[in-house]
Amino acid sequence: MFSRYAFLILSTCGVFACLPPLYAWVSDTVPSTTAGSLASDLNIAFTGPGQIMGV
Q: Where does the signal sequence lie (predicted)?
C-alpha cells in the first residue's frame, strides 16, 4: 500500500512540474502588471478545460 502511495506522489510531482514556470513566463512577458494579472487569469482559465479534455 505504501509503495503505491509513494509512486503516486512521484508521478504527481513529475506531471505538474511544468505549471509554475509556465505561469511565471506568461505573467512576465507582458508589458504591465494589469496585463500580467489578466494574462495569468486567462492562462489558468484555458488550461483547466484543456487538462480535463486531456484526461
A: 1-17
Residue with cell 508589458: 31
Residues 1, 18 contacting (CB under 8 angstroms) = no
Pick from 49, 52, 29: which is nearest to 40 by CA?
29
What CA–CA distance (Å, rounded) separates 39 from 37?
A: 5
Treating both helix axes as pointing N-terminal to C-terminal, what angle do 19-28 and 33-54 enclose, rounded to 10 degrees?
Answer: 150
What tens digit of pLDDT does each residue of 8-32 get?
888 877 777 777 888 888 888 899 9
Q: pLDDT (tens digit, 9 = 90+) per residue, 37-47? A: 898 888 888 87
Radius of gyration of the chain (CA): 15
